[in-house]
Model the fold of this input.
Amino acid sequence: MPEGHLIHHIARRHRAGLAGHEIAVSSPQRRFAAEAATIDGQHLDEVDAYGKHLFHRFGRWVVHVHLGQQGTFLWFPSPAPDPRPQVRLRLAAETGAADLIAPSICRLGPRRLRDAIVASLGPDPLREDADVELVRARFASDRRPIGAVLLDQSVLAGVGNVIRTEALFLDGLDPSMPAAALDRPRFDRLWATLTRIMERSAVDGRIVTADGVGRDARFVYKRETCRRCGASVECPIVGGRRMYRCPKEQPAWVSPSHETC
Done:
């Protein structure tokens, strides 16, 4: 599933190429035809990203998109080719066109729709208005494994499986460690690591945590061996999703109540 960095990457592209223009809106697939007709020819006021959600605002209307597992937005500079038949939504201006294919959500609603969705989400590390103190407080009261908490969009918006895996590796944290066991220095370090990975990835449009290409651009995610030390990578299920852990670089967490002298 596309993570928050990609949604911000798309938003930046659409903001630069489409915002401020009157937009020809269509649905070649016809599944969004009535909604497209409602906003066709209107001025695109704003493109906003929050977590894994994308919003295009047209006056009193907003288009809400969640890419889900298979969705993608394709960008074509002008002159754009004819859209493919499977395009759910095309947004076109003299500068270029954006084609949405296979989203899990594509809907039109009043502007308050955006506010209702955002209210259900935790802070987004890529936004200037992110409330890090709120996230810290939620971690401090949560006994679930930190690997599960990082995927909970109501706690922290935009983090997905790749980013949580690589961030926990870089900070040497066992994904099974309770979030509440993370002291302030380690929380602050994790927040900084998440922000650094996501900011770079939002610019690149792909997640890169190590120098290289493909799987070599990551330390443990979908690797058989740790790129740093060569140890065999473990693949625990945490938060209902398979992730990747280096047993040497991420020592198993031991509860203080089980420590021995």
Summary: The chain is about 30% helix and 20% strand. The chain has two domains: 4-119, 132-254.
